[in-house]
Design brief:
The complex is a heterodimer of chains A (about 120) and B (about 110). Chain A is mostly beta strands and about 120 residues long. Chain A contains no helices and eleven strands. In chain A, β7 and β8 form a beta hairpin. Chain B is built from no helices and eleven strands. In chain B, strands 2, 4, 5, 9, 10 and 11 form a six-stranded mixed sheet that branches. In chain B, strands 1-3-8-7-6 form a five-stranded antiparallel sheet, with no helix packed on it. In chain B, β9 and β10 form a beta hairpin. The chains are: A mainly beta (about 120), B mainly beta (about 110). At the A-B interface, β5 and β10 of A face β9 and β10 of B.
């Protein structure tokens, strides 16, 4: 079956531009996670949804970052007024049961964002 | 301050031999540990996990060992195969707090 998909795969933005990154989780998966992975680092947690409810957004680095999952399936991560330090790979993961952090997470291929 | 540390950025092993990837952690509240494997241009893939109530978990060629007193875990791959060449991430979690990942170790298995 289809895995987690993310689009676009690559995005180049000028500093100050707004960007929107899309995640299509595995069909039927309850949990959805966003991570940010800077070059040479491991993924860092941004936010977590259970269905349409955003249960944890403690990892969002600033109020320029906003995530939504309005119908409990597709999610969008929006970054306003991008800055160079936002350059990273943004990973989305989904999980089947909604048990939260300890269930197995299935990752998408990521969106590589470069802010010039 | 890094709570999960993978101090070896890279490791090279000959095909057929054992690969040992190490991970140290500082937070004694972590109660569940996972290893993920990542190929280039793909997302991480779950490999194996271990609960803090165990000291060993085995799945085929992969075994994870946990030493709670030393706050150390290791992933053993025996025998190593060229297809195992990837970046391996150690991750840890406490209760329902978010996963904390290490920086990863790049494993190269040489034929």
């Amino acid at each position: 079956g289809a895995g987690v998909s993310q689009s676009p795969r690559y995005k180049v933005a000028k500093r100050g531009q707004d960007v929107a990154l899309r995640c299509d989780p595995i069909s039927g998966h309850v949990s959805l996670f966003w991570y940010q992975q800077a070059l040479g680092q491991g993924p860092e947690f941004l936010t977590y949804f259970q269905n349409e409810a955003q249960l944890d957004k403690s990892g969002l680095p600033s109020d320029r970052f906003f995530a939504e999952r309005p119908e409990g399936s597709v999610s969008t991560l929006k970054i306003q007024r991008t800055q160079q330090e936002d350059s990273a790979v943004y990973l989305c993961a989904s999980g089947p049961s909604g048990r939260g952090i300890q269930e197995t997470q299935y990752f998408g291929p990521g969106t590589r964002l470069l802010v010039l | 301050d890094q709570q999960v540390k993978q101090n070896s950025p890279s490791l090279s092993v000959q095909e057929g031999r054992i690969s040992i990837l190490n991970c140290d952690y500082t937070n004694s509240m972590f109660d569940y540990f996972l290893w993920y494997k990542k190929y280039p241009a793909e997302g991480p893939t779950f490999l194996i996990s271990i609960s803090s109530i165990k000291d060993k978990n085995e799945d085929g060629r992969f075994t994870v060992f946990l030493n709670k007193s030393a706050k150390h875990l290791s992933l053993h791959i025996v025998p190593s195969q060229p297809g195992d060449s990837a970046v391996y991430f150690c991750a840890a979690v406490s209760g329902n707090t978010p996963l904390v990942f290490g920086k990863g170790t790049r494993l190269s298995v040489i034929a």
